[in-house]
Design a protein that fits this description.
The longest helix is centred in the first third of the chain and has 18 residues, at about 410-425. It is built from 12 helices and 98 strands. The model is unreliable at about 170-225, about 370-380, about 410-440, about 620-640, about 810-830, about 1005-1040, about 1205-1250 and about 1350-1385 (pLDDT under 50). The termini are far apart. A hairpin with a 2-residue loop joins strand 6 and strand 7 (about 95-100). Helix content is about 5%, strand content about 35%.
Length: about 1450
């Protein structure tokens, strides 16, 4: 009895256990050379049976078994059993091969699906038949006519690495009864769980073989000449080849139909009919269709397309099912046949129950589309439930489909064998295992050697790279060498990046086996079985399923890590720097392979496991390859706080988990609880910013902490309903477990407004503290446990919040996406408040980034800048060199000066050209390596020469507490530069010579008040309200680059004017254009609206996209761009079609012709909108680099032109270049740059464009008021309707006077400027006095203007009409009065807000008829006045209002009362029309 293996074997086989066990050496490095044979020939009826001891997952294919007539003693062993000739029969998979050629295609059970412990045997009967036995079951006759002497052959191929011979048995000739028994048991004899498991395994195992669960067919019914082929009769344009296994449509570029082919015989039950797409053309729409028909091909008159056949036909077309040409299931599966690529497989099978199933790349759509297995009687995912027994397979080579080939199992095995050979040739060492532990081998995760055409695998399969990353941005797809186990993380570290492209690494999973996958250029092009995280979205089969998910991968840097895990429940999770980004997808099948797409900037990645990591490349710090501050090489948790993906029913989490809002906020007020993504650490603050509120409900935000894990929390309608382990602040009440434990806490959450910040922190001693706008409100409660989650209830008025960077510790790689109405300041990246430059500076300096960056815009001098505030002792003021121009000599100067910047006025001689010439006040400075005092040399060879500075160097100056000056270079103290430094000094820096721009990198030690933050010269959001009435001739210049529109654009766009003008020539859409060049940082790109067509509604939108538009297929509107797109539309900001911000800037639909719109991306990756040169603040952040401007000429907007210094807008005479508005210096009070004026160009004069202002002007003309009282310059007349004030970028509140005092802009009113008293200009009344409002009636207007002072409604003059005396020192002096006048003095009511004095009590309404529209309106009038500080008393409203009138002012300070004469000056007439 042949109970042992022969001593001669394949070259990698080792025999153990007395030659009863065969093992293939190097199982993860080699897949073949594993032949073993029986020691003796088989006897009649003798069963040679082996047990599979071990398998690995590195390879495709598995054990092969059979017999051969060749004597092993003299045999030259081939690499595999299928290479045996001279009388050999081998069973491989489901195929039977004789001398290497297939003789039976569908036989028995698939050997590739056998597992460890399964038994497989071979038997030669006395009649010369070959039988296969699997786990004790005879699979029937595999072949006949065997010679009497054969040896058993076992090939330890592919996955199979070790087998053991079992005791041999002699089986009597009872083959037929045994077959009959097997047939009778068949499917019924198996356990239902086995049926389900096998079916699911068949669907998801990653190959294309079908597992037949029924008994094998009789040998008489399956013969070698009964192969499934195409019928010779076919469509008129079909050409058959390859023994009728391949069909091709002739003239594919001229004809799209007449390509029907059918099978040569009817399909059997459970028989797979499968084809492979060999060739496609991209000329036509539509593609391959496949199905079944009752018609015999011999008798059928073939139609042009099979869907024209109206009887006996079921076809899958696209993603639907058509029966007799009519749609019966529109959405059969998520995979559309029209999206399949060359190399994809399509199959169908009629089950024995009559159910019809379709397969795509081996996946049964009946299982895949429903997420589970269905029995044959269940129609949930079945294409058809009852089909007749006699059916033919049919394929329609329609449209794009040109050529297909029938796939047989032996072809599949050949393909696997070829792929394995390729793997071995490409990477000899691939697959080394991590460790050996006894007989258990854990196969290590590596990259599969079959990778994208521009990718390479190195470092023993651990590292993937794009060797020519600067030449191409795609074709960098790599997959794992094996499928992922449940709960196994596949994680890679980004080793190297390039900064040439947009986009970056993408990661995910796919059901496709890398051994036979035809890799696409980018993985998001794959339309089946693939889940990818790209940017901060998740895509399934190329379609976005999550727009805002997790950390944006495009912002990662070298050293960051990304990972993916399929959990045991089928959920998919992605990881960034070891932090779980939350649930990305559900019902992901098992046996998925990890996939990484080295796209765009990502050039190299290495797999992370428990083995020591290779070092980063030497050039990792070059270019964009800086180490990310949040990259962690261990499993240390990241400090990135976000909202958890579990939340209340009405809550929505966006912006990568950092923003939460309540949907349907005007119809729902609760069910919007959100909770932190992880527990808070001791002393860690969780801070949120209120971004949006509505005035519909009572109550507002509630905040607190809970010990309940989000996974265990059943979210109630409001968090105060929780009765255990929860502490909340609601209004002023501290509540524990739903019960009030304390009232009148230090803050009232119901009183907070948009822009307020709320923070929560548990101290190390268990105390809970709340912070409002950074101020500690004290201990709320004590004795809290350590493991707490922050919780926020978006209740009532509070609609939207975002986590701020104040939630410390801070992950510097993450950036808060600002979606607020205004750009609220965030905490600096270093402790304290970032230093700023003072607004008074050299005439060629432009300030940017809220005064934190200075740029010299002309020449080599006039670049002096000062610190905003005096330096405190030992406080360092430090700058970083951003840009240099080598055409100049000389370099930056730095030092200290006693000159106070606000002393520099336009009337004075101004600043000198160089800091060396600054001698009006004592100054100390370092120039090169010299120290000078007021220009005189004090010391030579001091420290590092500033002449040697380069881009990136940091220079700082410090006044020591010992009255010395120190200079720092890159943080290193150069020593004492000078001594005897005065107490009150400012830092001063000169942008001289080759240093062109610099940024502040230091911070002050104390927090600035809001009033000390100056608007920047380039991006200040100054109101026109703050116009300077004594302008100075000092303009801030802005560099504008000449950028043209790209030739690729929407189909209705016509470019002219050398690509600088875009015109929509048809319809209302298809008008998207993009810039031809990427938008550099800090460069303002501006366009002018040339033409509007009022036939349409809505208007243009504009923004940026993070990918090159050269080959982009633009949709009908820009709002349909769903990848890496940021768009400003109307008054909202959208990211990938999802609204992230409301009430931003003006409504773009109201912009008239002539409006100039601009976009700028600052150095912090924030996107700014400019309207007529006015910065509207940060619209959104995290803008990638590079990015391209995109403009949608939609609706009314038909033509725009790029505006720059050397490009003229059509129809312009060149006298007015529409660039940034004139920004002028004005008076400074206490270091505050109070007045910046912006004069709109004549083309956008509100008088010509605003209907509301025109209506108010027509009402003013009806009043008997002489024109001499009003200012002749129309630009001084301002409209504060919603459109106009947003168009200018006005803030709601400003400060004016000495000391500064808040006042509100009169939104909803229109101001007509009054002629100014020249004496007031001399004494600077309009800058030093406070601004207020006085309500009056129409009848008092003339008397008030005649007297030049306020007049009450029922009296002549309250004050004396004598001219006030001018006192040179203090401004106005009290005029002479007599006692009679004092007795008649009447109190005058003023207010800093029109919300109070605009009430009907102060401003009675008058009815009038508009002369143009002939409609009746109601009007009110009031005065804007300047009131002398100290001349009025502040008190509660005399109107007796109980509710808050203006959120900025308490009711106790809403009314100002003055009795003093000459304490007010008329400034403007206000008109409001209803």
């Amino acid at each position: 009895m042949a109970a042992e293996f022969h001593l001669r074997t394949g070259k990698l086989v080792a025999l153990l256990n007395g030659n009863r066990t065969a093992k293939r050496n190097k199982p993860t490095e080699e897949f073949n050379h594993g032949l073993a044979m029986s020691r003796e020939p088989l006897g009649d009826g003798q069963l040679f049976q082996v047990r599979i001891d071990r398998k690995v997952n590195s390879w495709s294919g598995s054990i092969e078994i059979g017999v051969t007539a060749l004597d092993p003693s003299t045999l030259d062993f081939p690499s595999s059993a299928t290479g045996l000739k001279g009388g050999s029969w081998i069973i491989s998979g489901c195929s039977v091969l004789r001398d290497g050629r297939s003789v039976l295609e569908e036989y028995g059970q698939d050997l590739d699906q056998l597992s460890e412990g399964d038994k497989v045997g071979i038997q030669r009967t006395s009649g010369g038949e070959l039988h296969l036995w699997v786990n004790g079951q005879d699979c029937g006759t595999a072949a006949s006519g065997l010679p009497p002497q054969v040896w058993a052959v076992v090939d330890l191929y592919g996955k199979c690495t070790q087998v053991t011979v079992l005791d041999c048995e002699t089986v009597l000739r009872r083959e037929e009864p045994l077959r009959t028994a097997a047939t009778e048991e068949g499917f019924v004899g198996m356990e239902l769980s086995d049926v389900v498991n096998n079916a699911i395994l068949s669907a998801y195992n990653g190959n294309l073989l079908n597992v037949s669960l029924a008994s094998p067919p009789d040998s008489c019914s399956v013969t070698s000449n009964d192969a499934l082929l195409f019928h010779e009769k076919c469509g008129t344009l079909i050409k058959l080849s390859n023994n009728n296994k391949t069909a091709e449509r002739r003239r594919p570029l001229d004809e799209f139909n007449n390509g029907v082919v059918m099978t040569n015989r009817p399909l059997r039950d459970n028989e797979m009919f499968e084809i492979r797409i060999d060739k496609l053309v991209d000329k036509w729409s539509g593609s391959i269709e496949i199905g079944i028909t009752l018609h015999n091909p011999n008798n059928l008159d073939y139609p042009a397309t099979m869907t024209n056949l109206r009887s006996g036909t079921i076809m899958m077309s696209g993603c639907g099912i058509l029966t007799n040409g009519k749609g019966t299931r529109r959405e059969y599966c998520e995979f559309s046949l029209d999206e399949l690529q060359e190399g994809d497989h399509i199959g169908l099978m009629r089950k024995s129950s009559g159910a019809l199933h379709f397969y795509i790349n081996g996946i049964d759509q009946a299982i895949h589309c429903t997420g589970g297995f269905h029995s044959s009687t269940h129609c949930g995912g079945v294409a058809a439930t009852q089909t007749l027994p006699t059916i033919y397979g049919v394929v329609d080579l329609y449209g794009m489909a040109v050529k297909v080939t029938i796939v047989h199992n032996h072809n599949h095995s050949d393909r696997l064998r070829r792929n394995n050979a390729i793997m071995r040739a490409l990477s000899p060492d691939v697959g080394r295992r991590i460790f050996d532990s006894g007989d258990v081998e854990v196969e290590r995760l590596l990259f599969h050697p079959n990778c994208g055409q521009k990718a390479a695998i190195v470092c023993e399969g651990r590292t993937a790279l794009r060797p020519h990353a600067t030449d191409d941005f795609n074709h960098g797809v790599v997959l794992s060498n094996r499928s992922l186990r449940s709960n196994e993380i596949f994680q890679v570290r980004i080793d190297k990046m390039v900064d040439k492209w947009a986009g970056s690494i993408e990661i995910g999973v796919t059901t496709h086996n890398p051994a036979y996958l035809q890799l696409p250029s980018t993985m998001t092009n794959l339309r089946s079985g693939t889940w990818m995280m790209t940017g901060n979205g998740v895509m399934h089969n190329g379609t976005t399923i999550l727009d805002e998910y997790g950390h944006n991968l495009d912002r990662l840097k070298a050293g960051d890590t990304v990972g993916v895990m399929r959990k045991e429940d089928g959920s998919l999770h992605f990881f960034v720097n070891n932090v779980d980004q939350g649930l990305a997808a559900s019902n992901v099948p098992s046996n998925v392979y990890a996939v990484v797409d080295l796209y765009g900037q990502a050039a190299q990645a290495t797999i992370i496991d428990d083995i020591e990591l290779p070092p980063l490349p030497d050039d990792v710090l070059e270019g964009n390859n800086q180490i990310s501050p949040c990259s962690l090489f261990s499993l240390t948790p990241s400090n990135d706080l976000r909202f958890h993906h579990l939340h209340g029913n009405n809550a929505v989490i966006t912006n990568g988990g950092r923003t939460a809002f309540r949907q349907n906020c005007r119809s729902e007020f609760n069910d919007a609880i959100v909770i932190s993504s992880r527990m808070l650490r001791e002393g860690e603050m969780f801070e949120i910013l209120i971004q949006k509120m509505v005035d519909r409900w009572s109550g507002s935000i509630e905040a607190g902490v809970t010990a309940i894990r989000p996974e265990d929390l059943e979210f109630p309608s409001t968090m105060t309903d929780i009765d255990y382990d929860t502490w909340m602040l609601s209004g002023t009440a501290i509540m524990q477990d739903g019960n009030t434990m304390r009232n009148n806490y230090g803050c009232d959450l119901d009183s907070l407004t948009t822009g307020s910040r709320i923070g929560m922190m548990r101290s190390s001693n268990g105390d809970l503290h709340y912070y409002i706008n950074g101020v500690d409100q004290g201990v709320a409660c004590s004795g809290l446990p350590p493991e707490l989650y922050a919780v926020v209830d978006l209740y009532g008025q509070c609609v939207q919040v975002s986590i701020t960077s104040g939630s410390l510790p801070v992950d510097n790689s993450l950036s808060l996406s600002n979606a607020t109405e205004k750009s609220f300041p965030l905490l600096s990246p270093v402790p304290g408040i970032t230093h700023r430059f003072h607004a008074n500076c050299g005439k060629y300096v432009a300030l940017q980034n809220d005064g934190c960056r200075a740029v010299r815009v002309h020449g080599f001098s006039h670049g002096i800048v000062f610190s905003m505030k005096e330096l405190k002792p030992d406080e360092i003021f430090e700058v970083k060199v951003d840009e240099m121009d080598e055409q100049w000599s000389g370099s930056l100067h730095i030092g200290l000066t006693t000159l106070q910047p606000f002393e520099i006025t336009c009337a004075s001689s101004g600043l000198p050209a160089s800091l060396l010439e600054l001698r009006s006040k004592v100054s100390w400075l370092v120039s090169g390596a010299e120290v000078r005092r007021n220009g005189a040399l004090q010391k030579q060879n001091y420290g590092f020469s500033l002449e040697r500075l380069t881009v990136g160097n940091r220079v700082g100056v410090k006044r020591g507490s010992d009255d010395t000056m120190h200079v720092f270079v890159d943080g290193e103290d150069m020593g004492v530069a000078a001594a005897g430094i005065a107490k009150n000094v400012f830092a001063v820096v000169d942008l001289y010579g080759k240093v062109v721009s610099m940024s502040i990198v230091s911070s002050s030690t104390l927090e600035e008040t809001e009033s000390t933050k100056p608007p920047s010269m380039s991006s200040g959001s100054c109101s026109e309200e703050e116009e300077d009435l004594s302008p100075c001739d000092n303009e801030a210049s802005v560099f504008l680059a000449t950028i043209e529109f790209m030739e690729n654009h929407g189909r209705n766009i016509l470019l002219s004017n050398e690509g600088h003008t875009a015109t929509r020539v048809a319809s209302y859409n298809q008008g998207v254009v993009a810039s031809a060049q990427a938008l550099p940082r800090q460069l303002l790109f501006q366009i002018r609206i040339d033409r509007l067509n009022t036939q349409w509604t809505s208007s243009l939108s504009l923004g940026v996209i993070g990918h090159c538009p050269e080959r982009f297929n633009f949709p009908g509107t820009a709002s349909s761009i769903k990848r890496s797109a940021w768009l400003i539309q109307r008054g909202s900001v959208f990211h990938n079609s999802l609204k992230i911000c409301d009430n931003y800037g003006p409504n773009l639909d109201t912009c008239p012709e002539g409006t100039v719109l601009g976009l700028l991306v600052d150095n912090t990756q924030g996107l700014h909108l400019y309207v007529n040169g006015m910065d509207q603040g940060v619209a959104t952040q995290d803008i990638p680099s590079p990015c391209f401007v995109v403009i949608d000429l939609y609706g009314q907007c038909e033509q725009v032109t790029i505006v720059s210094n050397d490009i003229m807008a059509p129809g312009s005479d060149g006298s007015h270049l529409c660039c940034q508005g004139d920004v002028e210096k004005a008076g400074v009070v206490d270091g505050i740059k109070e007045n910046l004026c912006w004069t709109p160009p004549p083309e956008v004069n509100p008088m010509k464009t605003c209907e509301y202002q025109a209506l108010c002007a027509r009402f003013k003309e009806l009043l008997p008021l002489p024109d001499g009282y009003f200012n002749e310059e129309l630009k001084c007349n301002l409209c504060y309707c919603e459109s106009c004030h947003k168009l200018r970028g006005d803030e709601a509140y400003y400060k004016r006077g000495d000391p500064p005092k808040d006042y509100a802009l009169p939104f909803g009113w229109c101001r007509f400027a009054l002629r100014l008293n020249p004496r007031c200009e001399v004494t600077n009344v309009y800058k030093k006095w406070h601004t207020a409002y006085h309500g009056t009636c129409v009848g008092s207007l003339r008397r008030t203007l005649d007297h030049g002072e306020l007049v009450s409604a029922g009296s002549a003059s309250i004050f004396c009409s004598k001219h006030a005396k001018v006192e040179l020192q203090n401004g106005y002096n009290d005029p002479e009065v007599n006692s009679a006048q004092e007795k008649d003095t009447v109190k005058v009511s003023l207010s800093p807000t029109m919300r109070y004095v605009g009430l009907d009590r102060f401003c009675p309404k008058i009815r009038f008829k508009d002369v143009r529209s002939q409609r009746h309106h109601q009007a009110q009038v009031a005065f804007q006045v300047c009131v002398r500080p100290g001349s009025y008393k502040i008190g509660p409203p005399s109107a007796g209002a109980s509710e808050s009138i203006d959120p900025r002012f308490s009711n106790n300070e809403i009314e100002w009362i003055t009795k003093e004469r000459a304490s007010t000056v008329l400034y403007g007439l206000l008109v409001r029309v209803e």
